[in-house]
């Protein structure tokens, strides 16, 4: 388990070094596409002069200077299944983005969905030796968190202190420099399947790139799609990708829960392909051009040419009504949303003060999704688009780029994680999620 701890520390140091040198690449390894963005970091002053832009959402530090996407290969359910195909796809995306940026990039920060994330809420406390809280005290209280057994073959992907309490004052973001006698801390720990992470690390190494950071797609999508109030008051982000749907819950600007459903837009496509007995590529075209989830009387009359070149004239000239297409798509989308609902219920989402749900990701673009989601997930649902970041090409601003954009923000402003502190290595933090949720009920 300490392997990932040590490698997370090494990555964090590499990220700092790469940012000082000025360029770093962002890699979103998805099931349907691989996106690569190249970021240039400058001092905030340089940027402001050339752009006449004030610090937008704290991202005056960087701009996107290269962007490319390629169809993903060898990835299923958000995890690498065929190493050499994924390696080829990553190389293609990175080379194209480097070419556009006109720089060579050695360091990447990557995110991925899937890998069966599990959340834990942990708590630790200690008496202070000196009344002023030091960096060392924060490290000690993190080390005092109770350690759950996260299970064989699992690794810690994120471990973030989400709340500090000093004596009777709770809800502190950073207690350093404050005065008190007893320091307590709550931490959110996210564990994932170790093999999935190791495959990604290995694949990126094979592309002759250094990994300078790694994040869960569900987490970074939340960072880019939830507006500040939502992150503060409590909201869930549901990132509907191609092969997996990521779920993250934020409150007080911290992620407190993440999960993923092993289904996404590709499953809708494959239902169409099986239902109409057509190739997947044709099904994808029909889905994006004519798809929907809510049939009206007009849809009975709207006929869709299926087309095809099987050589069987009758079969190639088939037409179906849009209502039939909706009838194939809707059950699968309902299933994905119902699964997401179950996960949120298990996390105690209904105890949060605000229950806003934001849908993002490529599959959230299916027309009529908001209406269906409101019915299944509850009243407060909106479709989210990621924040605007400087230099991002128009083609990369949609919901399908929520995790790539979030990863840029994560690179520029990483939240404190457990490995940022000099913690005695033999102490490893956590407790079950129920504890974390109960704490949200008690504290807010």
Task: Characterize the structure shown.
There is one protein chain. With 444 residues, the chain is an alpha+beta fold. The protein has helices spanning 2-21, 44-51, 83-101, 135-143, 194-206, 217-225, 228-233, 265-276, 280-290, 297-301, 313-316, 322-346, 369-377, 402-412, 433-443; strands at residues 23-29, 33-41, 62-71, 75-76, 79-80, 107-112, 118-127, 154-166, 169-172, 182-193, 210-216, 235-240, 245-251, 254-261, 303-305, 319-321, 356-360, 381-383. The strands form five sheets. The chain has a five-stranded mixed beta sheet with strand order 3-2-1-6-11, sandwiched between helices. Strand 4 and strand 5 (79-80) form a beta hairpin. The two termini are 33 Å apart.
Quantity of strands, as a count? 18
- Separation of the first and last Cα atoms: 33 Å
SS content category? alpha+beta
Shape: globular
The oligomeric status of these chains comes to single chain
Uncertain runs? 44-59, 425-440
Count of helical regions? 15
**Radius of gyration from the CA trace?**
23 Å
Average pLDDT value? 82
CATH architecture of the domain at 118-192 and 420-443: 2-Layer Sandwich
Portion of residues within helices: 25-40%
Which descriptors would you attach to this protein?
single chain, alpha+beta, Dna Ligase, domain 1, five-stranded mixed β-sheet, 15 helices, 18 strands
List the helices and strands and how they pair.
Elements: H1 2-21, E1 23-29, E2 33-41, H2 44-51, E3 62-71, E4 75-76, E5 79-80, H3 83-101, E6 107-112, E7 118-127, H4 135-143, E8 154-166, E9 169-172, E10 182-193, H5 194-206, E11 210-216, H6 217-225, H7 228-233, E12 235-240, E13 245-251, E14 254-261, H8 265-276, H9 280-290, H10 297-301, E15 303-305, H11 313-316, E16 319-321, H12 322-346, E17 356-360, H13 369-377, E18 381-383, H14 402-412, H15 433-443
Parallel strand pairs: 1-6, 6-11, 12-17, 17-18
Antiparallel strand pairs: 1-2, 2-3, 4-5, 7-10, 8-9, 8-10, 12-13, 13-14, 15-16
Helix pairs in contact: 3-5, 6-14, 8-9, 8-12, 12-13
